[in-house]
Amino acid sequence: MILQTDEQTIDDLRIFGKRDVSGIYDLYNHTHTRGGEACLEEMFRQPLSDKEEINRRSSIIAHFAQLQVAFPFDAALFDMAEKYLKNGDVLSKNTVQATLSEKDIYNGVTAVIGLLQHVHRFVEGPAVAGIAAYARERTEIALLLADPALEPALNESMKGKLSYGAVTAYDLLFRTRERQKIIQLLGHVYILDVYLSVAAVAVEKKFVFPKALDKGTGILKLDGVYHPGLKNPVGNDVSMGSNRNVIFLTGANMAGKSTFLRSLSTALYVAHMGFPVAARLMEFSVLDGIYTTINLPDNLGIGASHFYAEVLRVKKIAAALSSGKSLLVIFDELFRGTNVKDAHEATVAVTRAFAGKKNSKFVISSHIVEAGEQLQQSAGIGFLYLPTRMNGHTPEYTYRLEEGITDDRHGMIIIRNEGILDILQKGRKSQD
C-alpha cells in the first residue's frame, strides 16, 4: 500500500533538490551504487501506507544502525558487473563481441563471481542472520544463491587467473542461463545499499526511528521535531489525536511558521517510508495520504488567480476526505489570495469542516487572528503560536511553539528598520 501525495506536496517539502539547493533525498543519500540511488528515489516517491511494512523496514534500518554495518561491497565491482550484464544475452545477440571486449567479459565475469561470494558471506554472517525483520529478504537471497547452477561460482577460489574455458562457461551462465537471477540478486543488494546508507545517516544525525500505529487511531506524538536541513534547529513538541485533530497556527512573519509546517509534514512523510526522522521521539497513526499547500503558485496556464488556485486545492482535498481517507493536510496561510473579509469567513468555515474529519489531521496557519478567536468555540481545534519578543525596536524569535493565539504584527517595524520609507522619501525629495 502506497501513501497518496502529489507533486505540490513533494515540491513544498523540497523532497528533491533543485538547481544548487539540495533536497531531503540528498540528505539521506549516502548510497554507493547507482542502483541504490534509484531505489532510494523510488522509496521517496512511493512512501508506504501499511503499518507492518513501515515498522519492518524501520526495524531493519534501526538494527543496521545499531550494529553500524558498513556497505561490504566494492562499488567498482558493480560498475563492471552492470556494464557486463547490460549487454544482454550472448545467444540472442550477434554483436556482443563487438560491444564487449575479451577484457570486458573477463572483468564482468570476475566481478559477478566476486559479488556472489560477497553477498553469500554477508547474508550468512551472524549479525545479519540475527535481524528478524530482514529474514524475508535474506531468505529470498539464500534461495537465489542455492541454485545448483551458481555453486561453481560460489566455490571459485579466485586466487589465480581464470582460464579461457572457465570464462566462456561463466559468461554463458551469467548472461544467458541465469541472467535474471543475477539481476534479482543485484536488486537485493541495491536495497541493502539503501538500508545501510540510511542507517549511517541515522547514526551521524542522531535521528530517531518512529513507531507506526494502526491506521484510524488518530494518534500523532512528536517530541523535539525539527527540520533536518537546518544547521542550528529548534525542536518542538506536537501532539494530536481524535479529540484535537486540527491545529490553528499563528505568528508574525519570520517567526518560523512555514519552517514548522515543513518540519512536521517532512517528519510524517519520511516516517511513512520507514526511515529515521529529525526528532527525539515519534509515534504516529498510519495515514492514507499527505497533502501540503505551502508554496502554491498561480495557475497561469488556465488563467487562474492565486485565490482560485487555493479553491481548487481545497476542492481536491475535500474530495479525498469525502472518500473516507485518513490524511494529513497542511495549509500555510489559507486563502491568502483574497480580501481579509472573505479570507476570514472562508478560513472559519473550512477549518470547522476539517475538524469534523476525526480520522485526519490538519494544520492551518493564518495571520487572521479574528478567525482563530471565532474558532475557539469549536471542538477538536487546538491553538499554537510562534512568539516574537521585542528587543527595543528589534523583533527576536524563539521558534518555540506556545499554546494560544498571538496577534503579533511586526511588518511595519521591519519595514522601518530596513529604512525603506527613508529611501523612498529621500528619492522623492531629490527629484523635487
TrEMBL record:
Keywords: ATP-binding, DNA-binding, Nucleotide-binding. It comes from the Bacteria. Transmembrane segments: none annotated. The keyword NADP does not apply. Gene3D superfamilies: 1.10.1420.10, P-loop containing nucleotide triphosphate hydrolases. The keyword ATP-binding applies. InterPro entries: DNA_mismatch_repair_MutS_C (IPR000432), DNA_mismatch_repair_MutS_sf (IPR036187), MutS (IPR045076), P-loop_NTPase (IPR027417). It holds the Pfam family MutS_V. One of its GO terms (molecular function) is ATP binding. One of its GO terms (biological process) is mismatch repair. Residues 244-432 form the DNA mismatch repair proteins mutS family domain. This is DNA mismatch repair protein. It comes from Chitinophaga flava.
